[in-house]
């Protein structure tokens, strides 16, 4: 069976390389020529643990990349993994989906199965089906649930496979079960349903996780005022298996390429359908305020931050990724720079540091950022001579750093931990003044 994957970003590249590792003949298609060139040379344009090694193993054998849609002619199955960003109002912008489908249409000559992995609003798969009336093509909704940072591991061991079909489609189930045979053998749950349910599962999952985060973040503000300790509260809540301990760490709010845009899109989908989304609206507004609230804590402490130098530890939106989209660290950097602070930024992932340099160099609307924002390749250089250390990534590696050395290097011995990741007692023992989120 021949497979094409359209869009070789975080989702598409994992899908292409992962399916090649299952033995399929895979062609990855992207409009970005430089990305395609890098991939054909076995170089990964994004950071994901283990991905480049697997890419190198398969590229030139049963995996290739191209910008030409013509290559899809002899593919049986095409996975659509292009981006679905938000527009100015928060709706999902489907322009990449529609343009990919228009390009594909020119090369539909035999029967094909088009699998939509991109996150799309409820109703989109049916709309695409209508747009492709007259073509011998089946559309299957197969939302993606990968977690950046552990994406390859997740691809090989997913928690579930969700497939949404058209009611009159009798061939797709067998085709998809063939492709995902490895998962069937591992007894990974398959949810076979209609388009709309499949589409809603994706938004419901992300919105629920985002709500858990906003819930604990809202509580953290009350903890801050009352001497309650949010870490102990969250830990104790999490021991109840109806609640679960994940996504209950208070901090500076969620970011990334999915939660913020998917939550906003879901709000818009409610509104479009005349239903008032109370919980999800609150999830979004709590999240948008959380970073400002934390920034307020920093400002309150210093009074005036103009000319103060801060080390920001964490540039990407989470550990082990280079993805800076909607990163809370970057948002905080923007707030600090706007008030005249000088920022020394660091991330454990080299590509995240490179991406941060690119953002600030290329952002013409914020010319002043260039001079006050530095990215350093070493954590200890980053914390040297700063007026404060701000943690913006939930990475336990930070606890294994030499905090005694860091104490000596920093000018002011102050830590603002926006992820409550450091062991408070330990750094306080070294003499740091420590501020977390909702800690006693
Ligand atoms: N990143 C994640 O963690 C994640 C997880 C689950 C679901 N998703 C969803 O998956 C989709 C893709 O996300 P992503 O993070 O991989 O996006 P991305 O921006 O990293 O990648 C999209 C890729 O599509 C390419 N592209 C755009 N238009 C194209 C076209 N017409 N033809 C060929 N290629 C084209 C772009 O050049 C880019 O390489 C989105 O809908 C997203 O919401 C993402």
How would you sum up this structure in a few lines?
The chain is α/β, with parallel strands linked by helices and 440 residues long. Helix content is 44%, strand content 14%.
What does the model show?
Belongs to the UDP-glucose/GDP-mannose dehydrogenase family. Keywords: NAD, Oxidoreductase. With 440 residues, this protein is of the alpha/beta class. The chain has two domains: 2-188, NAD(P)-binding Rossmann-like Domain (Rossmann fold), CATH 3.40.50.720; 207-435, 3-Layer(aba) Sandwich (Rossmann fold), CATH 3.40.50. The chain has helices at residues 10-21, 33-40, 51-58, 95-105, 124-131, 151-156, 172-179, 181-185, 195-226, 230-238, 259-272, 278-302, 328-338, 350-362, 369-372, 379-383, 403-409, 424-429; strands spanning 2-6, 25-29, 63-66, 77-80, 112-116, 137-141, 161-165, 190-194, 309-313, 342-346, 373-375, 388-391, 414-417, 433-435. A six-stranded parallel sheet has the order 3-2-1-4-5-6, with helices on both faces. Strands 11-10-9-12-13-14 form a six-stranded parallel sheet. Strand 9, helix 13 (328-338) and strand 10 form a beta-alpha-beta unit. The chain is globular, with a radius of gyration of 23 Å. It starts with a strand and ends in a 5-residue tail after the last strand. Mean pLDDT is 95; it is low at 363-369. The structure holds nicotinamide-adenine-dinucleotide (NAD).
């Amino acid at each position: 069976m021949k497979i094409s994957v359209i869009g070789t970003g975080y989702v598409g590249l994992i899908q292409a390389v992962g399916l090649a590792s299952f033995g399929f003949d895979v062609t990855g298609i992207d409009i970005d020529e430089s990305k395609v060139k890098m991939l054909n040379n076995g170089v990964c344009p994004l950071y994901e643990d283990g991905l480049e090694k697997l890419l190198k193993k398969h590229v030139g054998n049963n995996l290739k990349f191209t910008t030409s849609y013509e290559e899809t002619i002899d593919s049986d199955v095409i996975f659509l993994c292009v981006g679905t960003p938000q527009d100015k109002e928060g709706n999902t912008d489907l322009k990449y989906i529609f343009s990919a489908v228009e390009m594909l249409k020119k090369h539909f000559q035999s029967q094909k199965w088009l699998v939509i992995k991109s996150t799309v609003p409820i109703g989109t798969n049916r709309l695409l089906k209508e747009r492709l009336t007259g073509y011998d093509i089946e559309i299957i909704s197969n939302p993606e649930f990968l977690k950046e940072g552990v994406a390859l591991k997740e691809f090989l061991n997913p928690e579930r496979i969700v497939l949404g079909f058209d009611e009159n489609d009798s061939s797709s189930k067998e085709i998809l079960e063939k492709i995902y045979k490895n998962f069937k053998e591992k007894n990974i749950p398959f949810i076979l349903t209609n388009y709309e349910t499949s589409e809603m599962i994706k938004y419901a999952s992300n919105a629920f996780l985002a709500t858990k985060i906003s819930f604990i973040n809202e509580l953290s503000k009350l903890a801050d005022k009352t001497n309650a300790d949010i870490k102990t509260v969250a830990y104790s809540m999490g021991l109840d298996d109806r609640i679960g301990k994940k996504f209950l760490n208070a901090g500076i709010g969620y970011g990334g390429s999915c939660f913020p845009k998917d939550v906003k899109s879901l709000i818009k989908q409610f509104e479009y359908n005349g239903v008032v989304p109370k919980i999800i609206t609150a999830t979004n507004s709590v999240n948008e305020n959380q970073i400002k609230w934390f920034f307020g804590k920093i400002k309150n402490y210093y009074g005036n931050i103009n000319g103060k130098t801060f080390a920001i530890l964490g540039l990407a939106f989470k550990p082990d990724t280079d993805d800076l989209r909607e990163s809370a660290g970057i948002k905080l950097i923007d707030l600090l720079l706007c008030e005249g602070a000088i920022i020394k930024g660091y991330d454990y992932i080299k590509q995240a540091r490179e991406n941060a340099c690119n953002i600030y160099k290329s952002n013409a609307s914020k010319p002043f950022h260039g001079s006050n924002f530095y990215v350093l390749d070493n954590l200890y250089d980053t914390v040297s001579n700063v007026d404060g250390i701000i943690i913006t990534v939930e990475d336990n590696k930070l606890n294994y750093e030499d905090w005694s050395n860091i104490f000596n290097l920093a000018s002011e011995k102050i830590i603002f931990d926006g992820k409550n990741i450091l062991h408070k007692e330990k750094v306080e023992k070294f003499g740091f003044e420590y501020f977390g989120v909702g800690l006693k």
